[in-house]
Each structure stands twice: as structure tokens, then as C-alpha cells.
Amino acid sequence: QVQLVESGGGLVQPGGSLRLSCAASGITFRLYVMAWYRQAPGKQRELVAHITGDGSMNYVDSVKGRFTISRDNAKNTVYLQMNDLKPEDTAVYYCNGERPLTTRSLNYWGQGTQVTVSS
After folding, report:
1. Is the separation of the CB atoms in 93 and 80 below 8 Å?
2. Which residues pair with 100 in a beta bridge?
3. Closest CA to 34 of 88, 115, 110
4. What is the β-pairing status of strands 33-39 and 46-51?
């Protein structure tokens, strides 16, 4: 059974930091591209950052220089360090794991963790 379990969300003041974690089980973690998405109220879910099995990273422009994605393949865990948080970062953050195959891809989601940035 595949599980992606997020943790680390919460309420933080503008300018503050949070570190999200996503622990994966039931998959060969190193073969998966891991990503963080977020969905704010009334908005579509958007890709925040992703990291390949060998550590290549990419970010949406709005978080570049503030967020850092990383992974520990030995612990089957992906992280999102979020610094200088802004109210517009408020959203439910979801962990995603995807493994492209020849004719399809395997794709799994976590349950989400709420991040609220407010004074």
C-alpha cells in the first residue's frame, strides 16, 4: 500500500519559516520524481517545486530564492524548506510522487497539510 504522509504545516507570521516533510512508503522512492503542489482557496492546484531521483530541482517563479526542495533517498522523505513566507503562500500543500513508465506513469498524492501565513 502506497502512502505519502505530509507534516510540518501550521500558522506562521509573514517573514517566518516552515519546513514541510513528506514520508513515502510502499514505493521505490529513488525512482520517483517528488514534488510539492499547493492549492489556495478558490484557485487551481499549482506545482511549487519538484526534484528528480538524482537531485535536479525546479521551482515556480514565485518561490525562487525563498523555498528549497530536497530529498533523502535513504529515509524515503522529501522536504520543502520555506523561508520569508508571504500571505500569498497560504494554501494546502500536497506531496506528489510520480514515476514515468513506458506507456503510463505511476502517480500518488498525500493528504495535504495546511500552511497559513498571517499576522
Report:
1. yes
2. 105
3. 110
4. antiparallel
Which pLDDT belongs to residue 18?
98
Give the bridge partners for 23, in sequence order. 5, 77
**CA dihedral angle for residue 114, residue 26, residue 36, residue 89, rounded to 10 degrees:** 10
Place of cell 500500500: 1
- In which residue ranges of the chain is pLDDT below 50? none
* C-alpha closest to that of 71 among 34, 111, 118: 34
- Residue 68, strand partner residues: 81
Query: Which grid cell is 103?
Result: 506507456
Cα→Cα distances 86→6, 14, 18, 62, Å: 21, 5, 12, 10
Share of the chain above pLDDT 90, in %: 94
